[in-house]
Design a protein that fits this description.
It comes from Neobacillus paridis. With 280 residues, the chain is α/β, with parallel strands linked by helices. It has ten helices and ten strands. The chain has one domain: NADP-dependent oxidoreductase domain (TIM Barrel, Alpha-Beta Barrel), CATH 3.20.20.100. Helix 2 crosses helix 3. The radius of gyration is 18 Å and the shape is globular.
Length: 280
């Protein structure tokens, strides 16, 4: 069980990935993202998650440089966007992301959404980047079980990570069990349901027992489910508070109560219908 911000899970290829990090979805390019990432790194975060479509890779790269934290101590994730799917275009998208970030390599590169029919070709490009030593780990995002089964039929390298929407209203029990069985690390995006769960009465009540907020309860629940989590914030105090979850443990009963909040309700798109940016 993770006991500090620097604790890691070991991916199936032996690479160590922090259990906890900062997401920068919808964080504006420029000073907003630079300050957010710098604050996180200053307070001990060692994982930053961005994506080409977030249009803030340059700011993330600047903040990493300015932080004074050695590059090899930071785990950086980016993602190939839908319109760049395909073999050659993915290789090109990777170069573009690296250039914007000002880095020589990424720690994790993900296919952002499965789409219809190109993800196998895209995956081949990720396998090449991995085999060439350009990226330390490769994975997918927003893949349901059927997408993973399809990919596993003929991939050479199994995805190391599947980053999906995961929170107490969308507990994805079957997907979590499937990924754990296959040795694919599940990672939660939007763990707070884009802020909708921060005042949830059940979570607030559980938090009172530990002197913690509903937010801290959710993030702790992620970790105890063995799910990597990357809450987003642009406020330094919130960034500190989000990470203050390593000094308590939820009981089995608390975990069950939180699981019981599930409604199979998404705040993001359903991966089976998300086709924004895809080109045939």
């Amino acid at each position: 069980m993770a006991t500090s911000l620097t604790d890691t899970t070991t991916l199936h290829n032996g690479v160590k990935m922090p259990w906890f990090g900062l997401g920068v979805f919808k964080v504006k390019e420029g000073s907003e993202v630079i300050e957010s990432v710098r604050a996180a790194l200053k307070h001990g975060y060692r994982a930053i998650d961005t994506a080409a479509v977030y249009q803030n890779e340059e700011g993330v790269g600047k903040a990493i440089k300015e932080s004074g934290v050695p590059r090899e101590e930071i785990f950086i994730t980016s993602k190939v966007w839908n319109s760049d799917q395909g073999y050659e275009s993915t290789l090109q998208a990777y170069e573009t992301s690296l250039k914007k970030l000002g880095l020589d390599y990424l720690d994790l590169y993900l296919i952002h959404w499965p789409g219809k029919n190109k993800f196998k070709e895209t995956w081949k490009a990720l396998e090449k980047l991995y085999k060439d030593g350009r990226v330390r780990a490769i994975g997918v995002s927003n893949f349901k079980i059927h997408h993973l089964e399809e990919l596993l039929k003929d991939c050479e390298i199994k995805p190391m990570v599947n980053q999906v929407e995961f929170h107490p209203h969308l507990t994805q029990k079957d997907l979590l069990a499937y990924c754990q069985k296959e040795g694919i690390q599940l990672e939660a995006w939007s763990p707070l349901k884009q802020g909708q769960l921060v005042n949830d009465p059940v979570l607030t009540e559980i938090g009172k027992k530990y002197g913690k907020s509903a937010v801290q309860v959710i993030l702790r629940w992620d970790l105890q489910n063995k799910v990597v989590t990357i809450p987003k914030s642009i406020k330094e105090q919130r960034i500190i508070d989000n990470a203050n979850i390593f000094d308590f443990e939820l009981t089995a009963e608390d975990m069950e109560t939180i699981d019981g909040l599930n409604k199979d309700e998404r705040v993001g798109s359903d991966p089976d219908v998300m086709m924004v940016g895809f080109t045939d």
